[in-house]
């Protein structure tokens, strides 16, 4: 029987995870192959060119452009401080001089006698890349970055916002059906990645930010609360760059959805451990999933060293989540994969599967309506 490829989320107790940590521009790599690194350790750094500020010196001094070079107090290549004079007119008999000052710190990059413009380059912007996870450097890209390998529990979500953060796992609820309410978020949540159940409101997220929590993992959120929190509607572009002071990972989908039992139990079992969370999500080509990675240490037992690759595909016995109505969000086990096409309500003929839901019901649905929960 042929395998049907179905995208899926991984929820794995122990796996070998490899993360590439690359600079946006060539720079200096600080770690060497074989080094043990902590998530917070800087493994590479570089500097981005500073912003350019054009200054219309000719206009500000009311002189012809060709006179600007002679009126400059600073030459090309010289550094200046914000507010420092960089050009001055001759005035009348040495009096009534006009002065142009630097709008920011930087370096005089060019002086044009054609336009009368002076280009000020602001100081370079330092960029540092950390290891993101505790682990071992197994490869080095010269002037670019490294690959960090770790034995870890690995949980993917369906949607997230916010970038990379590091914190300690803390469970706020006892059951995957429970919501995270503001009263559950106390000052001792500072520095923690909070684990909830089925739902969270914008009020609770803002409460978590106020106590300086690092992240939140929860089953579902609705569009209203997400919009209230962000202040705008999410589009189809990649997420992860939001500067909201916290990272949010949704494991099941939009609405009030109980977190999958396996996911919840794994996260709760990791309470007190250091974790890395990233909310970056992209659902178009080049799929990116939000994730939580909890390093287990070098001595942890891992059955398969398969990094982050997906399984072979959809097979009988696969654990899946339904991603379309009328069973949206429900979990089940594949019990049959009929090879023949079947006509559905839209009159289209598609490949289907038989699914045994958690409540014991058996249903027939299109294979495109499920995603694998990777183990």
Helices and strands in order, then pairings?
Elements: E1 8-22, E2 28-29, E3 36-37, E4 42-48, E5 52-56, H1 57-61, H2 68-71, E6 79-80, E7 85-88, E8 99-101, E9 106-111, E10 117-121, E11 125-130, E12 135-141, E13 145-156, E14 159-161, E15 165-171, E16 179-180, E17 192-195, E18 199-200, H3 202-210, E19 215-221, H4 223-230, E20 247-254, H5 261-269, E21 274-278, E22 291-295, E23 319-322, E24 331-336, E25 341-343, E26 349-357, E27 362-366, E28 370-374
Parallel strand pairs: 1-28, 15-17, 16-18, 17-19, 19-20
Antiparallel strand pairs: 1-13, 2-4, 3-12, 4-11, 5-10, 6-9, 7-8, 9-10, 12-13, 13-22, 14-20, 15-21, 21-22, 23-24, 23-28, 24-26, 25-26, 26-27
Helix pairs in contact: 3-4
Description:
The longest helix has 9 residues, at 202-210. The protein is mainly beta and 375 residues long. A hairpin with a 3-residue loop joins strand 12 and strand 13 (145-156). The protein has helices spanning 57-61, 68-71, 202-210, 223-230, 261-269, and strands spanning 8-22, 28-29, 36-37, 42-48, 52-56, 79-80, 85-88, 99-101, 106-111, 117-121, 125-130, 135-141, 145-156, 159-161, 165-171, 179-180, 192-195, 199-200, 215-221, 247-254, 274-278, 291-295, 319-322, 331-336, 341-343, 349-357, 362-366, 370-374. The protein is elongated. The protein has five helices and 28 strands. Helix 3 (202-210) runs parallel beside helix 4.
């Amino acid at each position: 029987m042929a395998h049907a490829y179905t995208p899926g989320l991984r929820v794995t107790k122990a796996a070998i995870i490899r993360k590439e940590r690359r600079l946006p521009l060539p720079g200096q790599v600080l770690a060497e192959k074989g080094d043990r690194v902590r998530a917070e350790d800087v493994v590479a750094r570089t500097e981005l060119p500073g912003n350019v500020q054009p200054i219309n010196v000719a206009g500000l001094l009311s002189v012809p452009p060709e006179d600007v070079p002679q009126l400059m107090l600073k030459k090309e290549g010289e550094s200046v401080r914000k507010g420092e004079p960089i050009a001055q007119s001759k005035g009348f008999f040495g009096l009534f001089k006009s002065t142009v000052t630097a709008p920011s710190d930087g370096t005089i990059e060019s002086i044009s006698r054609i336009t009368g413009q002076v280009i000020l380059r602001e100081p370079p912007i330092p960029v540092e890349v950390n290891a993101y996870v505790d682990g071992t450097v197994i490869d080095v890209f010269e002037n670019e970055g490294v690959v960090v390998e770790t034995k870890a529990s690995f949980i993917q979500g369906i949607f997230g916002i916010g970038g990379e953060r590091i914190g300690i796992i803390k469970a706020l609820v006892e059951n995957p059906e429970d919501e995270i309410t503001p009263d559950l978020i106390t000052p001792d949540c500072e520095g923690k990645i909070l684990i909830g159940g089925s739902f969270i409101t914008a009020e609770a997220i803002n409460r978590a930010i106020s106590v300086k929590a690092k992240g939140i993992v929860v089953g579902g959120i609705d569009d209203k609360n997400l919009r209230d929190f962000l202040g705008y509607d999410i589009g189809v572009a990649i997420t992860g760059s939001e500067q909201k002071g916290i990272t949010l990972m949704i494991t099941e989908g939009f609405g009030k959805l109980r977190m999958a039992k396996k996911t919840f139990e794994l996260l709760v079992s990791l309470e007190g451990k250091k974790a890395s969370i990233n909310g970056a999500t992209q659902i178009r080509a080049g799929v990116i999933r939000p994730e939580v990675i909890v390093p287990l240490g070098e001595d942890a037992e891992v059955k398969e060293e398969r990094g982050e690759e997906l399984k072979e595909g959809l097979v009988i016995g696969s654990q899946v989540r339904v991603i379309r109505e009328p069973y949206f969000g429900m979990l089940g086990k594949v019990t049959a994969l009929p090879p023949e096409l079947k006509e559905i309500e839209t009159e289209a003929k598609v490949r289907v599967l038989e699914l045994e839901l958690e409540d014991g019901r058996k249903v027939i649905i299109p294979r495109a309506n499920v995603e694998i929960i990777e183990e």
